[in-house]
Specification:
By secondary structure, this protein is of the alpha/beta class. Helices cover about 40% and strands about 15% of the residues. The chain folds into 2 domains: about 230 residues, Aspartate Aminotransferase, domain 2 (3-Layer(aba) Sandwich), CATH 3.40.640.10; about 130 residues, Aspartate Aminotransferase, domain 1, CATH 3.90.1150. Helix 1 runs antiparallel to helix 8.
């Protein structure tokens, strides 16, 4: 078998429908901020359970717009160090200062580390739903934010359709940012979505995404915005994928069950456990025992068994990235739990069209390589 790390899936009938929509868009001449974008926003907000949704050009721009709406310029925002570059970068681009925090064994930002890192100028906290799982710690973090008067943003780039206690990702904080990058559970090619129940954030986000203009047809600029629009073609692609979201999640959960059962019999590795049917399994995360060489394991899986592991989340915590080491003077050792967990985990291949046979082959290959 040849098992890729991930696989984008557009069924034939969906591709045909998307092409028809693109043809309609091109004929109309209305290529941005039109009916497809509005429909995508409406359906996504209804699905998540928020009053408002704003379609934008990427998950990164979604984060930065939210941060600008919350006026972080000159203030600090607490961010988990085990996240993608875009999370802290959005804070900096919005004029804020990043304060990194350590994480728990569930890969969620640690509530205790949050409390330890609150400063006089701290404006808020960003929680990242790593791999698609909404960690229970978010409830404690909500209470901390409430106690100290901080905003809470969900970086839900991984978490379309994920839940905790019956609530969907995107409904725990003041606002949330989703990504539709090609690797995600659903994609629009490029794109992102802001969701919120806060009318002020919604109104300002609409202005920020369109060059800071007060209105689409005018040329009066009231905010320091940027070109963060989602095109109608991207929205049409996103709508098509969105119609498959629950189907894709169900398929990923079936593969995750096979992995859960299979890994119980494999020594040297342990799955990151989540509550049943809560994660969308954007990533299937497992931890290697100390002493297992991750790079060697990945290389042998690929060379001997044609199994490609997905990218880690993340292999190098942000405080050890060269740009942030330079900006903030980190030396290493500041966040030991994050450094250890980032170094030891792997992400097994998972995608909507993966078969049971493929998943079991991955387990067999993994078991063989670890024994070696």
């Amino acid at each position: 078998m040849n098992i890729p790390a991930a696989k984008i899936y557009f069924p034939k009938e969906d591709r045909k429908e998307i092409l028809q929509h693109i043809d309609e868009i091109l004929k109309s001449g209305w290529l941005t901020l039109g009916k497809y974008g509005r429909e995508f926003e409406k359906r996504f907000a209804t699905y998540v359970g928020t009053k408002y949704a704003v379609a934008v050009s990427s998950g990164t721009s979604a984060l930065e717009i939210i941060l600008r709406c919350l006026d972080v310029k000159g203030l600090s925002v607490i961010v988990p160090t085990n996240t993608f570059f875009a999370t802290p970068a959005a804070v900096i681009h919005a004029g804020g200062r990043v304060i990194f925090a350590d994480i728990t064994e569930s890969l969620c930002i640690d509530p205790e580390s949050v409390k330890e890192n609150i400063k006089e100028d701290t404006k808020g906290v960003i929680v990242v739903h790593i791999g698609g799982a909404v960690a229970p710690e978010i409830m404690e973090i909500r209470e901390i934010c409430k106690k100290y008067g901080l905003f809470l943003i969900e970086d839900a780039a991984h978490a379309h359709g994920s839940t905790l206690n019956g609530k969907k990702a995107g409904t725990f904080g003041d606002a949330a940012a989703f990504s539709f990058y090609p690797t995600k559970v659903i994609t629009s090619g490029e794109g992102g979505m802001i969701v919120t129940n806060n009318e002020e954030i919604y109104k300002r986000a609409i202005v920020f995404r369109d060059q800071g203009k007060a209105g689409f047809y005018g040329n009066v600029h009231t905010e320091m915005g940027y070109n963060w629009r989602m095109s109608e073609i991207h929205a049409a692609i996103g709508l098509s994928q969105f119609a498959r979201l629950d189907e894709f999640i169900a398929a990923r959960r079936e593969i995750a069950k096979i992995y859960d059962e299979g890994l119980e019999d494999v020594s040297g590795i342990k799955a990151l456990k989540t509550e049943a049917n809560t994660s969308n399994y954007y990533k299937y995360v497992a931890f290697l025992d100390e002493g297992v060489d991750r790079a060697r394991l990945k290389r042998r899986l690929k060379e001997r068994y044609n199994v490609s592991l997905s990218g880690e989340v993340y292999e190098l915590p942000c405080h050890l990235q060269p740009i942030f080491k330079e900006l903030y003077g980190f030396k290493g050792g500041e966040f030991p739990r994050a450094e250890g967990l980032c170094k030891r985990h792997i992400c097994l291949p998972i995608y909507a069209t993966m078969t049971e046979a493929e998943a079991r082959y991955v387990i067999e290959a993994l078991s063989s390589v670890i024994k070696e």
